[in-house]
Amino acid sequence: MSDYVKDLMAEVKAKNPAQPEFHQAVQEVAESLAVVLDRHPEYRSAKILERIIEPERVITFRVPWVDDQGEIHINRGYRIEMNSAIGPYKGGLRFHPSVTLGILKFLAFEQVFKNSLTTLPMGGGKGGSDFDPKGKSDLKIMRFCQAFMSELFRHIGPDTDVPAGDIGVGGREIGYMFGMYKKLRNEFTGVLTGKGLNWGGSLIRPEATGYGAVYFASEMLSTRGKTLEGKTCLVSGSGNVAQYTVEKINQLGGKVVTLSDSNGYIYDEKGINAEKLAFVMELKNVRRARIQDYIDKYKEAVYTPVDPKNDFNPLWNHKADCAFPSATQNEVNGKDAANLVRNGVYCVSEGANMPTNLDGVKVFLDGKILYGPGKAANAGGVATSGLEMSQNSMRLPWTREEVDNRLRMIMKSIHANCVEKAERFGTPGNYVNGANIGGFLKVADAMMDQGVV
Ligand code: NDP
Fold this sequence. Notes:
By secondary structure, this protein is an alpha/beta fold. Among the domains are: 55-187, Rossmann fold, CATH 3.40.50; 208-377, 3-Layer(aba) Sandwich (Rossmann fold). Helix content is 48%, strand content 14%. The protein is built from 17 helices and 13 strands. The strands form three sheets. The chain has a five-stranded mixed β-sheet with strand order 1-2-4-3-5. A five-stranded parallel β-sheet has the order 7-6-11-12-13, sandwiched between helices. β12, α13 (358-366) and β13 (370-372) form a beta-alpha-beta unit. α2 runs parallel beside α5 (101-117), α2 packs across α17 and α8 (205-222) crosses α15. The longest helix is centred in the C-terminal third of the chain and has 25 residues, at 400-424.
């Protein structure tokens, strides 16, 4: 680690105590950028990186709400407005009991680079709450979403800050929040993305993150003359990103053998085909049940509970060609990464945000496998949110084919940008450096143009 990065990290840790995920995200980026800052002292003297790691604005607020039994609950709401140099703040809302300021700051920080890579004019932000939607009735979810929006509405807007979904926030929650925003503002605008199709949503937005991660994997594979046809793939999670990752892998001729949730994972050696995926979608999106129920219907599959306290996750210990971590941050550690490489995995495309910890990233880079970090590989979701914003502004919806083609072109261009930046700054084939540098340069130049603000 260079002296510059060491000093920067010491300051980040002192100023932002007890935010390990934020420290991790900053360290990875700072290490990639050391060479850029050496070649461009103007960024260093303008303190561009020091400014990027400090959010432009952090909003925290009380979310009191009354459940269907009349009991009062109090959650904490957040919106991190990280960087608006290249466009309005843009990034999802996460509802999960593990949400803290540090988690949302790491996500907002990653979002700045990811949004820059998409080629679209979007700044970076992230928000959410420690509210746990799991097992709650529709009425409780609606009441919480309305209470959350009754404060958030004064901080967001179609040209200011445009939230979307993330863990625990899907079409249902976006609908309840959009309804409340519209009532409070008396305006129908594209203030949220991930909306329903008949009220301003975009075709392909639900599919976009998963499809994009698979398109990115295809691009990486093509650099070695390979395709997904006939490849065995490990996928974690069973939510929005995981489901559409499976769908696209199947369409491209691959075979997915795993899916998971926070309790455990299923291994289906025959592959999770379209019919089985439809069952998973019904299980998770309609019945809101556990992935364990998969084996009640498909007896050939095996369910294994996973204890997060163990030092490795058995999901990552199967023979395969490709892996798509699509659940949550730090779900792949150094040991998991070593197991993946030992089992023959040579392509990892991250659907989730920062699912691999720093030890794991090192294993992938040392092993010289094709490793697409989340901020590049999962950028298809926010890119299609950007396309939803364009359609809202034009008040003109595009066809499925049009959005999918644009998504594919954006993933292709993100891949090309990562390859080019990695090569230009001396680490060919390193997508981590490529993504961090590619995302940084556009934001840094905009900040230089706009002065010290
Ligand atoms: P969902 O809420 O739809 O699904 C999340 C999945 O991950 C569920 O299967 C959930 O299991 C599992 N999960 C959540 N927390 C944990 C945990 N602590 N340990 C193990 N499993 C866990 O979310 P998404 O699919 O939308 O998001 C998944 C990842 O993709 C996140 O990292 C998110 O930030 C990232 N992402 C999402 C985008 C999007 O467009 N939705 C865009 C870009 C990135 P359970 O049901 O048990 O909670």
